[in-house]
């Protein structure tokens, strides 16, 4: 017992409780500083020079009307025009416009959202520990991108299984109808134990049905080759003297059902990312009392809202939702940013955008939005379209699509000079 008492000081166990208490006090102190609503930094003094609440309020109302109009037009054009020849989802004009919109979304994530998140989460107003000792903005963006991948995967699996069950139910109903009609027409099928042929089947595939002599084709396969594979044409090959009753056609429409499932998931995940950052940019504009800040934001956000809406509207159109579902998704997108501006205007009297709490909240949400938008732009919009057979078989479409993609990303990046 005396040996243990003599040995304890060497283990320094008596200092663990003291160190734990010091660390917990330090952590709680930094947490309280992080949640502070007090102003900090020199940004407030710079904005006070251009502060004019009455002019700012008028500009906010203009912003709500302008951004709402741009959002409705952007998301509505693909939905309303999907029955028009030049605005159908399979038209080249729609494809190139969607490439431009994908460039806008990619630049929004990389050039607008992620730098804003870095600036907010590395602000000197925040406590050094933990905010200035770890790159939280990049970490949050990475985790958001991985979470989006998981949601993308799980959502696709869910809708594919749902579609398979519906298809199985339809096939079961068709089989039951066929069996009833076969019984009514007197068709009798008896399998030969030796050859495995249906009773009445001749060599070469001819079929004798009770009361009817019918010849069924055996080898008619339709496969595209060479240029026809790009154009989606069908080349028929017949084997033997009899026509075959089944054929295979491989064109651009292969996998339409799987593509529809992907568009269902993509449209919903993309809207999630867009809505999350639309709330932030709406609040940022709404709480501002500086006309110098609001004026450039109106033009930038209108441009951004229009083409973001066009990309989302294209995905909704390709997903083939019912009219009510598509309208609800479109309205949710169009109203989010104006609603954010209205909320920001209402809380501008007591909301301090330069406080540590506001910086942490905005920086975290900006990081998450950036991760979602970058993933969606690269994986579900750009890669899905630019690695498809459609663009690889059309050189002119390749050139125009890549040009519009870089143009959209470049113009949206250029807007970072003003907003």
Structure, explained:
The protein is 70% helix and 5% strand. With 419 residues, it is mainly α. The chain has a domain at 68-161 and 254-417. The strands form two sheets. A two-stranded antiparallel ribbon has the order 1-2. A two-stranded antiparallel sheet has the order 3-4. 31% of the residues are buried.
How would you concisely characterize the structure shown here?
By secondary structure, the protein is mainly α. The protein is built from 14 helices and four strands.
Derived from helix and strand composition plus strand pairing, the structural class reads mainly alpha
What is the average of the pLDDT values? 76
Tally of helical runs: 14
Q: Order the strands across the largest sheet as they lie in space.
A: 1-2
Helical content (DSSP H or I, runs of 4+): 55-70%
First-residue to last-residue Cα separation: 72 Å
| Main beta-sheet strand count, sense and barrel state | 2 strands, antiparallel
Please provide the ordered H/E string of secondary-structure elements: HHHHHHHEEEHEHHHHHH
Number of E strands: 4
Which runs of at least 5 residues are low in confidence (pLDDT < 50)?
188-223, 232-255
The rounded Rg comes to 31 Å
Strand content: 5-15%
* Apparent shape: globular
Organism: Actinidia chinensis var. chinensis (Chinese soft-hair kiwi)
Keywords: Ion transport, Membrane, Transmembrane, Transmembrane helix, Transport
GO molecular function, one term: zinc ion transmembrane transporter activity
Pfam family, one: Zip
């Amino acid at each position: 017992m005396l040996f243990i008492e003599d040995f304890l000081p060497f283990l320094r166990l008596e200092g663990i409780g003291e160190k734990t208490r010091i660390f917990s006090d330090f952590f709680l102190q930094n947490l309280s500083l992080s949640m502070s609503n007090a102003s900090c930094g020199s940004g407030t003094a710079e904005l006070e020079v251009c502060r004019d609440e009455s002019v700012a309020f008028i500009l906010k109302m203009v912003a709500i009307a302008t951004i709402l109009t741009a959002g409705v037009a952007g998301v509505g054009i693909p939905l309303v025009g999907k029955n028009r020849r030049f605005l159908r989802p399979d038209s080249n004009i729609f494809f190139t416009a969607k490439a431009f919109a994908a460039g806008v979304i990619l630049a929004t994530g990389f050039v607008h959202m992620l730098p804003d998140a870095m600036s907010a989460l590395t602000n000197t107003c925040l406590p050094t520990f933990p905010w200035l000792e770890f790159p939280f903005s990049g970490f949050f963006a990475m985790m958001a991108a991985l979470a989006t991948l998981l949601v993308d995967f799980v959502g696709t699996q869910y809708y594919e299984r749902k579609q398979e069950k519906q298809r199985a139910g339809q096939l079961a109903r068709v089989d039951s109808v066929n069996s009833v009609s076969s019984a009514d027409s007197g068709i009798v099928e008896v399998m030969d134990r030796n050859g495995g042929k249906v009773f009445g089947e001749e060599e070469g595939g001819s079929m004798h049905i009770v009361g009817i002599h019918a010849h069924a084709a055996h080898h008619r396969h339709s496969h595209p080759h060479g240029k026809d594979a790009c154009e989606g044409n069908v080349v028929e090959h017949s084997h033997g003297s009899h026509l075959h009753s089944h054929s295979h056609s491989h064109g651009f429409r292969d996998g339409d059902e799987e593509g529809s499932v992907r568009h269902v998931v993509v449209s919903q995940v993309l809207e999630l990312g867009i809505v999350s950052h639309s709330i932030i940019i709406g609040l940022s504009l709404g709480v501002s009392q500086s006309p110098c800040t609001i004026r450039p934001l109106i033009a930038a956000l209108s441009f951004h809202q229009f083409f973001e809406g066009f990309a989302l509207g294209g995905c909704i159109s390709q997903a083939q939702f019912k009219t009510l579902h598509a309208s609800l998704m479109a309205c949710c997108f169009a109203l989010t940013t104006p609603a954010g501006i209205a909320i920001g205007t209402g809380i501008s009297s007591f909301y301090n955008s330069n406080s540590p709490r506001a910086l942490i909240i905005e920086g975290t949400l900006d990081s998450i939005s950036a991760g979602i938008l970058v993933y969606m732009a690269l994986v579900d919009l750009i890669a899905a379209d630019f690695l498809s057979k459609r663009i690889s078989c059309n050189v002119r479409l390749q050139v125009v699509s890549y040009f519009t993609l870089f143009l959209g990303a470049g113009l949206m990046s250029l807007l970072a000079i003003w907003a």
